[in-house]
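Example record

One chain of 274 residues, shown exactly as stored in the release files.
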Amino acid sequence: MRPLLFSLALLATCSFAPAQVKTQDEPTNAAEAAAKKAAEDKAVDEKYQAWKATLPADQQAWETVLEQNLGNGFYLPLHKKEKVLGRSNAWDFVQDDPKLPRVLLIGDSISRGYTLDTRKVLAGKANVHRAPENCGPTANGLKKIDIWLGDGKWDVIHFNFGIHDRKTPAAEYEQRLEALIARMKQTGAKLIWATTTPVPPDTKEGPEQVTQIAEKNAIALKVMQKHGIAINDLHAFLLPQLEGIANPKDVHFNGKGYALMGQQVGRSVEAALK
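Predicted C-alpha cells for this chain:
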C-alpha cells in the first residue's frame, strides 16, 4: 500500500503545481520580441511626427537634419522618445538670441554628455549648439563637416576627435585633423581643441586604450600648437579626479563627471569670447 499511497501523493503534488503562464505582452521568442519592439518604435515615431508637425518651419528643418544624421540604431530612437516625453536633450533646437555669440560643440558621445551642462554655464552668455550626431572619428568628420557647420556663422567652435580614432594610424590622424582645421577656419570662428578624456585602465581594451589615447592627444596637441589653437585640456582636468566620475569599465562618465566637464568647457568658451 505504501508505494501506491506515495505515487498518489506525488501525482497530486504534480497535478496542482502552478503552471507558468505567459503574460499577454510577454514575447516568447526572438521574432515576437522583434515584432513588439517594431510596434513600439512605430508608435513612438507616429507621436514624434505628430509633434514635429506642430513646430515652426525652422524647428521642423532642424528635426529633419537630426533624422538624417542621428542614425536609426540608438540616438535617433532615443531622441524621438525624449521629444515625445517632453524631455530636453543635447540636440534641442536652439533659438538664437541675436545679441549673443554662437558656439558650436563638435564631438562624440562624451561631448553629447556635457552639452546640456555647458548650456547651463553659458546661459545668457552664448547660444550653444551642437553637431547633429555622435561625430565619431575624424574620417566621419571629413564626410560630415559641412553639414555640422551649417551656415558657418560661428564665433567659437569647440571640438574633439579622439576615442573613436584610437586605432587610426598616427599619420592619417594628423592629416585628417589638418583638413578639418582648415575647413573650420573658413568660418572665421575661434577654435578650441578639447583633449580626449582619460579612460580607466579597467576598460575592455585595458592599458592599451590608455596608451592609444595618450598617443592621439600628443599628436593633436602638436597640430593645435602649430595652428595657434586654444587648448581645453579635459584630459589633465579630469585625470586626478577620475575615481567617482567615470563609469566602471567604460569610457563614459556619470552625471557628476559631465557637470564638471560642462563647467570646464563653459570656462574655455568664455575665455575665447573675451
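Notes: Strands lie at 102-106, 127-130, 156-159, 190-194, 230-232.
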